[in-house]
Amino acid sequence: MPDAGRVPTALRARTRAAALVATALAAAVASTLVALPARTVAHDPPGIDRFLRALAAIESNGRYDALNGTSGAYGRYQILPMNWPRWARQYLGDAAAPTTPDNQERVTAAKVHSLHHWLGSWDLVAHWWLTGTAKTDPATFSPFAAWYVQRVMALYDGAASGDDGRTALQESEAGAIYGGGWSRAEHGSYAGDTVAWSDVVGASATFTFTGRSVVWIGPIGPTRGRADVYVDGDFAKTVELRNGGFRPRVVLFMMTRPEAGEHTLRIEIVGEPGRPVAIDEFRVGE
Q: Model-level pTM greater than 0.70?
């Protein structure tokens, strides 16, 4: 009978073999877990192409060769030199990838895709692009950051480019009939620097036009109200203008008819008194 305090040689060998297998298996599992990629979104977030165009317009006027002599930021989206190698390695697989137009597009599209998945909205992505900081409340933006975000989002909303094929008519030029107590407000981001506004429940603006389509453009923000919209006397929808952050030029309502003709758009303020509704511009399409 063997000594109870000693393990037979064959048993020790089997034990060592089992331990080696277990260690190898654990290492393989750990390696697999480390190699798993971060969670990705199968599809691009809505509006990514429009956002990229707006961002490029503000950052560089769309130039792939734009260079900031102070910061060294380069290209259509003004990527900082310290960011390019890291982002190029992450999204192109090569930290030394050249800043060609195609590479700029691929890297930026992938980065803003990731940012939108993280932050949840394009205005917060625009803020991050400028500052490199994640904020979820636009009310905490610095004045300059808020101005920058407003400019990007105005272009994103299609309200500042003037290239949508429609005729733009400012609120003071459109021949709209205002009733119930309207005033003027000024802001540098408004078309013509002014809007018509009212916070009186029941106040209305009636705009008669000839064409196939019409767009109402105006501001949204934390203190804004809501309005009912009627087309040719028929209720169309209630437009909610309250938003976490101020944006001066947003497409608030759009209507298209099969054929051109004379139509009437009526905007009537509803909801709580003291919450303003504003009209910056109408756009009419033939």
A: no
